[in-house]
Design brief:
Structural class: alpha+beta
Low-confidence stretches: 162-166
Helix content: 25-40%
Mean pLDDT: 90
Order of helices and strands: EHEEEHEEEHEEHE
Oligomer: single chain
Shape: globular
Radius of gyration: 14 Å
Largest sheet: 6 strands, antiparallel
Number of helices: 4
Length: about 170
């Protein structure tokens, strides 16, 4: 059985745009990439003493389990040179499972929907671009409703160059 999963993608080290595009390309290992948002310049959240991010969201049609998808996302981060250590610190690649169909998962290593997604403009802006009517399974509000109601003051600006969609 296949499901549509939404993956948040970010980078703030090196060629941020190339890192995001490569992550999107590598996500095809999980299944068919059905849509990709624009790229967005975003302020860092949590730890401000670092460079701004480039963020995007990709929708993939996958038959991988949530755990398998998480392992693939972590593998992609590693292949793109991510060094783990500082929480919310700089990174070449950051991939987060935002939504996996309407599934709710609450495990120590994996929480779906992503616990902070409804509070973060850098997640909701690109997600609303490609999936405005998708429902958050816990708060029972669409992505576009969450984005309109958001009080996040961080700057999120659409990049001039567009990403490719499948």
């Amino acid at each position: 059985m296949t499901v549509i999963a939404y993956i948040g993608i970010g980078s703030n080290i090196g060629d941020r745009t190339a890192n995001c595009r490569k992550a999107i390309e590598l996500l095809s290992e999980a299944g068919r990439v059905v849509s990709v948002s624009s790229l967005y310049y975003t302020e860092p959240v949590g730890r401000h003493e670092q460079d701004d991010f480039i963020n995007a969201v990709a929708a993939i049609e996958t038959d991988r389990s949530p755990g398998e998808l998480l392992k693939l996302c972590q593998s992609i981060e590693d292949r793109l040179g991510r060094k783990r250590g500082i929480r919310w610190g700089p990174r070449t690649a950051d991939l987060d499972i935002l939504l996996y169909g309407d599934l709710v998962v609450g495990q120590p290593e994996l929480v779906i929907p992503h616990p902070q997604m409804a509070l973060r403009k850098f997640v909701l802006a690109p997600l609303a671009e490609i999936a405005p009517d998708v429902m958050h399974p816990l708060v029972c509000r669409t992505v576009s409703q969450l984005y309109r109601e958001l009080k996040d003051p961080h700057t999120v600006i659409k990049c001039r160059q567009e990403t490719k969609t499948s």
